[in-house]
Amino acid sequence: MNHNGICYLVGAGPGDPGLITVRAKELIQSADVLVYDALSNPVFLTWTKPGCEKINAGKRAKDHTLTQDETNDLIVAKAQQGKSVVRLKGGDPMIFGRGGEEAAELAAAGVPFEIVPGISSAIAGPAYAGIPVTHREHNTQLTIFTGHEDPTKETSTLDYQHLAATPGTKVFLMGVARLREITTSLVANGASPATPIALTRWATTGAQKTITGTLADIADTADRENFKSPAVAVIGSVVNERQNINWFENRPLFGKRIVVTRTREQAGELSAQLAALGADVVELPTIRIAPPEDRRTFAESVTHAHEYDWLVFTSPNGVSRFFDAFFATYPDARSLGNPRIAAIGPGTARKINEYRITVDLLPEKFVAEGLIDAFKKESVDNLTMLWIKAADTRDVIGRELTKMGAIVDECIAYQTVPETDDPTGAKARLAAEGADLITFTSGSTVDHFMALGLDWPEHCEAASIGPVTSTTLRAHNHPPAIEATPHNIPGLVDAIVNHFT
């Protein structure tokens, strides 16, 4: 038996992936085994290395995929096999996360372990609801308790008389199912029925929802709003600060569920901008980038790129694939020679600039026709051009440049294929919860989304990055409600904000 394994008890934070620690992300990326609970943001599953074994331990209310004893046995066994095990737990593993129990089991088995704290929803949840858990004008004390006790205990160990008499702010976790019992018990033991209370569900995410009230009426409000777990509750006069500093829920896209269909590698830019504006982003990549079918011809084209007068790039993916192949052959960037460089749009230009190469031609309109219009201002007769492109793209550029007298060779750098992996369960979430908007950044994302066979959500609209994508949407009988101008990611984000505001 190999005893070189180790288990990391890692706090995943409250939900927003930006609130996970640097150490936690490093461990997720290097883990051999990832054991995660239901409160972890599913985007964390996309950070793992190829071959990582991902195991869902469940742990939400009464729905446990694995019992606690089974989870304990699992992390011990995997570590004893010599593997690096990350036990990912929502919030902080030591704040009502049973991390202490798991650490004890690891210690008893002689398994090395490390505890990586996380930001607890007990603090982050109220903060994202605009409620400071401590405030000089309200309190000098903070009490945190759990609303979900060990179900095997015959009686509650919560001292409601003591809690009711304790001054300051009180925060409780995992107590939505027992909300009426908790609030009634506090009032019965001396707490004022008029004490303010707020509950925040799915705190720090785009799905966040907050309800407020008093100890006397919050249970009725929760029933009326069908308010479910997971949620954090904060009790005390600090709740009144929410009317002044409710920053997160006032953003322009808050409450809007928006689907991003770009490739997993590219989704981050659009997702991050939408999330920063308050959207509940669901990443559902419909395509992925794969090598070209004829890799040898692609490699030969790249090898001879220095012989051309122009290199024409029409996507960031083409830029990446081209230079990956180029530097695999040539160790010196000067081997590229001195061709002029054309880019179809600013996103492609930025990717070229990452290689410390300047773009010589950028059109005013970021589509193939715009690039042709830009070339019409140049003298291209008898000049050689290498067009770095995806397979099965429109032939506008090659055809029109040839008409202008240029000698154009195609360099197929990649192909788009259907994305079959869905580690975050985005398809099921879209089917169950619907969406307000689905974004499309190319005709291929449209075609492959439709090929999934998913029902189009009720009252859901489509957003297109440009006219070519819009044409594809119309062909599928889903004309876009939004079309970006300019035809790039910032333009798409601006168009979405304008549409909803």
Broad CATH class of the largest domain: Alpha Beta
Gyration radius (Cα, Å) is 27 Å
Whole-Å distance between the termini? 61 Å
Helical segment count: 18
Total domains: 4
Oligomer: single chain
Number of strands: 20
CATH superfamily of the largest domain: Tetrapyrrole methylase, C-terminal domain
Largest sheet, strands/sense/barrel: 5 strands, parallel
Q: What portion of residues is helical?
A: 25-40%
Q: Which whole number gives the mean pLDDT?
A: 92
Strand numbers in spatial order across the main sheet: 3-2-4-1-5
Catalogue the unreliable spans: none
Q: So what's the overall shape?
A: elongated
Strand content is 15-25%
What is the fold named in CATH at topology level of the largest domain?
Answer: Methyltransferase, Cobalt-precorrin-4 Transmethylase, Domain 2
SSE-based structural type: alpha/beta
CATH architecture field of the largest domain: 2-Layer Sandwich
Task: Note down, in words, how this protein is organized.
The protein has helices at residues 22-30, 68-80, 99-108, 121-128, 160-165, 179-188, 218-224, 242-245, 264-276, 295-303, 316-329, 346-353, 368-375, 396-403, 426-433, 443-451, 467-475, 489-500; strands at residues 6-11, 33-37, 53-58, 84-89, 113-116, 142-146, 169-173, 196-201, 209-214, 231-235, 257-260, 280-283, 287-290, 310-313, 340-343, 384-390, 407-418, 437-440, 461-464, 482-483. It is built from 18 helices and 20 strands. It has four domains: 6-119, Tetrapyrrole methylase, N-terminal domain (Cobalt-precorrin-4 Transmethylase, domain 1, 3-Layer(aba) Sandwich), CATH 3.40.1010; 123-250, Tetrapyrrole methylase, C-terminal domain (Methyltransferase, Cobalt-precorrin-4 Transmethylase, Domain 2), CATH 3.30.950.10; 257-286 and 419-500, Rossmann fold; 291-418, 3-Layer(aba) Sandwich (Rossmann fold). Helix 13 (368-375) packs parallel to helix 14 (396-403). The model has no long low-confidence stretch (mean pLDDT 92). Strands 3-2-4-1-5 form a five-stranded parallel sheet, sandwiched between helices. The protein has a five-stranded mixed sheet with strand order 6-7-10-8-9, sandwiched between helices. It has 501 residues and is of the alpha/beta class. Helices cover 33% and strands 21% of the residues. Strand 11, helix 9 and strand 12 (280-283) form a beta-alpha-beta unit.
